[in-house]
Amino acid sequence: MSHSDLHVVTGAFGYSGKYIASLLLQQGQRVRTLTGHPNRPNPFGNRVEALPFHFDNPQELTANLRGAAALYNTYWVRFSRGRTTFDQAVANTRALIRAAADAGVGRFINISITNPAEDSPLPYFRGKAVVERALTESGLSYAILRPTVLFGKEDILVNNIAWLLRRLPVFGVFGSGEYRLPAGLALAVGRVVGWLVRDVVITPDEIAGLMANLLVSDRPPTCPTRLSEWLHEHADRLGARYASELKRHYRRA
Prior knowledge:
The chain has 9 helices and 6 strands. By secondary structure, it is an alpha/beta fold. It has a 6-stranded parallel beta sheet, with helices on both faces. The chain is globular.
């Protein structure tokens, strides 16, 4: 095989990265993943080569990207915890962009978020904007995707809302159902549920982002699958089990 058929996906053991890798394999591409959990079971067996990120080793990171036709970057963090911070995520992604440029990667596809802004008070959206600028200034051929929310069989957000709906005798919808709900009450309920399931259900920054309508796009939808249709199709399984954010991303396997 030539190097031109190599596609690199960050986080192919996770959620979105797993499905990107699956589609590439279906197309007959050679797939490699860079992951922060190289010791976890590989769901693809020997079909996907798994290597650690090596953010702290630019030479190794560049070598692992060399000759790739494309790099699909899903790496980010949902919230700061311990040594995992948004500042570190920005620094790591910048290192990934520099390594991709040095390695001659054909195209860099970056998963961003709706409404990123470098002057945002919320580090999630601010960091995404900083990363976007670093990519646009890198000299790489690039594409930037700005989804509002990703939903699918292994989703955490939509699944856990359904999990709560299945188990709570009541489910609070504040006012007319708009995002501008009492933030303190929503956070308090989230912390109680989080304590019960030993997870982080929602953060103050996430509530602030929802209340500011930052997860709303003013552009026409591009997803061919309506969320309402997908919910109806998977209603019997959605929310049957709780999906832990900490277990998936912040705890060692």
